[in-house]
């Protein structure tokens, strides 16, 4: 499982011109689900993401987490995080989990956040979304449950 995590001032998600979710200050998490991801990958993400110390405390640039600032979390599914560009110029998505199964895993991920008392908002799985965001920084980090990077 892969994630791009961005510190944001706000995020708005629309599908077909209709607002489906928004957050204020917090983090936007784009999540890609790999074909071999399991509940261990879900657990890794749920344990890691809310505690990432990527917000300033007044003294240092990265001292406190989104939960410590009372910030919001927006989680958006993005299979393109498993795009492989090593050959040619068109990405291969063979390492991404097929959509039907990926939707189940994504829903389990959201459920695991909820079970851990971490409120998240989300876009619409497998929909074409218009995502407007205001980056804070910008401050962006990559996370991979297989620790590839």
Structure notes:
- The chain is built from two helices and six strands; from the N terminus they run E-E-E-H-E-H-E-E.
- It is α/β, with parallel strands linked by helices and 149 residues long.
- The protein has a single domain, classed as D-tyrosyl-trna(Tyr) Deacylase, Chain: A, CATH 3.50.80.10.
- Strand 3, helix 1 and strand 4 form a beta-alpha-beta unit.
- The chain starts with a strand and ends in a 5-residue tail after the last strand.
- The model has no long low-confidence stretch (mean pLDDT 97).
Question: Brief overview, please?
Answer:
The chain is an alpha/beta fold and 149 residues long.
Give a quick set of tags describing it.
D-tyrosyl-trna(Tyr) Deacylase, Chain: A, alpha/beta, single chain, 149 residues, six-stranded mixed sheet, globular, 34% strand
Topology:
Layout: E1 2-15, E2 18-23, E3 26-32, H1 39-48, E4 72-77, H2 99-115, E5 121-122, E6 130-144
Parallel strand pairs: 3-4, 4-5
Antiparallel strand pairs: 1-2, 1-3, 1-6
Helix pairs in contact: 1-2
Order of helices and strands: EEEHEHEE
In the CATH hierarchy, the architecture is 3-Layer(bba) Sandwich
The CATH C-level name is: Alpha Beta
The whole-angstrom Rg is 15 Å
- Count of structural domains: 1
User: What share of the residues lie within helices?
Assistant: 10-25%
Superfamily (CATH H level) name: D-tyrosyl-tRNA(Tyr) deacylase
Low-confidence stretches: none
- Number of helices, counting only DSSP H or I runs of 4 residues or more: 2
Structural class: alpha/beta
Q: Main beta sheet, described?
A: 6 strands, mixed
General form:
globular
């Amino acid at each position: 499982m892969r994630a791009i995590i961005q510190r944001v001032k706000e995020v708005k998600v629309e599908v077909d011109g209709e607002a489906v979710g928004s957050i204020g200050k917090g983090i936007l998490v784009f999540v890609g689900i790999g074909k071999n991801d399991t509940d261990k990958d879900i657990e890794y993400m749920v344990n890691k993401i809310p505690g990432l110390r990527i917000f300033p405390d007044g003294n240092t640039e990265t001292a406190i987490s989104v939960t410590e600032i009372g910030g919001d979390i927006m989680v958006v599914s993005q299979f393109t995080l498993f795009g492989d560009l090593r050959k040619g110029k068109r990405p291969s998505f063979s390492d991404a989990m097929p959509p039907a199964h990926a939707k189940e895993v994504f829903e389990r991920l959201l459920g695991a956040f909820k079970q851990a008392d971490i409120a998240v908002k989300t876009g619409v799985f497998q929909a074409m979304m218009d995502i407007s965001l205001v980056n804070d920084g910008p401050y962006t980090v990559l996370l991979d449950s297989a620790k590839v990077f």
